[in-house]
């Protein structure tokens, strides 16, 4: 039977998926998709909440999605007794390099460009900001990180290690910098690294989705709908 080029490619891809499945049986589903349920068992997880501050939240583009995600996560974390760390990176200072003159001005310009992407606050947004302030603002109840990448702060790493997690789950702000850097470093350090996409946000939709796409190539990016299938959902 004669096969077209595309049929041969599809057949080869299917054979490759079956090979991967046979090699990692119990870790992969039959269709070659990674089964992550075992890495999200509550006793194996540590959740790191980054920068839960009203002044950051009010400049995020996906306020409604974030509130809905946290309305699921917050009681579920208590119910399942999942360990959490609330971390503030907003006061972290970068090292000054001898040959990096003008770096502070350079960073200020880059930051200003990002701030131009901040959405206009609507009346509905004001309701979400009020909800966040009342329910989820962790200001004053956080560990201060000396690095924007929390996995480079030795004090925080010691706290993480004392919990002996296999999986570190990231939520908070901002998706395109602190979440991106910390989650990838966690993966490099040997942890399963998971980002809950709707429980993070940043200035703009473009920054948000491009960051998630980059992270998804190296670690697990899921949303609360995926978690509901694993942790359950109470009506």
Short description:
This protein is of the alpha/beta class and 235 residues long. A six-stranded parallel β-sheet has the order 3-2-1-4-5-6. 30% of the residues are buried.
Word description of this protein:
With 235 residues, the protein is α/β, with parallel strands linked by helices. Mean pLDDT is 86; it is low at 20-32. The chain has two domains: 1-35; 37-231, Rossmann fold (3-Layer(aba) Sandwich), CATH 3.40.50.850. It has nine helices and six strands. Strands 3-2-1-4-5-6 form a six-stranded parallel β-sheet. It is globular, with a radius of gyration of 20 Å. It has helices spanning 5-23, 54-57, 63-80, 103-115, 123-135, 154-163, 175-188, 205-216, 224-231, and strands at 45-50, 83-88, 143-144, 167-173, 192-201, 220-222.
Keywords for this entry:
9 helices; alpha/beta; 2 domains; 235 residues; Rossmann fold; 6-stranded parallel sheet; 6 strands
Give me the CATH superfamily of the largest domain: Isochorismatase-like
In angstroms, what separates the terminal alpha carbons?
54 Å
- CATH fold name of the largest domain, please? Rossmann fold
Order of helices and strands: HEHHEHHEHEHEHEH
Q: Quickly give the structural class.
A: alpha/beta
Shape: globular
Helix content: 40-55%
Major sheet: arrangement of strands: 3-2-1-4-5-6
Radius of gyration: 20 Å
CATH architectural category of the largest domain: 3-Layer(aba) Sandwich
How many runs of DSSP E, i.e. beta strands? Answer: 6
Protein name: Isochorismatase family protein
Domain Isochorismatase-like: 144-225
Pfam families: Isochorismatase (PF00857)
């Amino acid at each position: 039977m004669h096969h077209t080029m595309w049929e041969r490619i599809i057949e080869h891809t299917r054979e490759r998926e079956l090979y991967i499945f046979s090699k990692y049986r119990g870790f992969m589903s039959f269709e070659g998709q990674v089964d992550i349920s075992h890495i999200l068992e509550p006793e194996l997880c540590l959740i790191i909440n980054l920068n839960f501050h009203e002044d950051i939240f009010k400049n995020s583009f996906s306020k409604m999605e974030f509130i809905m995600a946290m309305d699921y996560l917050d009681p579920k974390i208590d119910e399942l007794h999942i360990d959490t760390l609330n971390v503030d990176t907003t006061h972290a200072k970068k090292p000054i390099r001898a040959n990096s003159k003008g770096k502070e001005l350079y960073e200020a310009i880059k930051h200003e460009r990002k701030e131009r992407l901040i959405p206009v606050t609507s009346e509905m947004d004001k309701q979400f900001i009020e909800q966040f302030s009342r329910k989820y603002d962790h200001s004053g109840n956080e560990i201060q990180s000396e690095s924007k990448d929390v996995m480079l702060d030795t004090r925080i790493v010691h706290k993480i290690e004392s919990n002996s997690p296999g999986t570190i789950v990231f939520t908070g702000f901002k998706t395109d910098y602190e979440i991106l850097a910390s989650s990838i470093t966690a993966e490099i350090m040997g942890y399963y690294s998971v980002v809950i996409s709707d429980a993070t946000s940043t200035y703009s939709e473009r920054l948000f989705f491009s960051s998630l796409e980059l992270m998804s190539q190296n670690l697990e990016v899921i949303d609360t709908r995926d978690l509901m299938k694993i942790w359950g959902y109470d009506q």
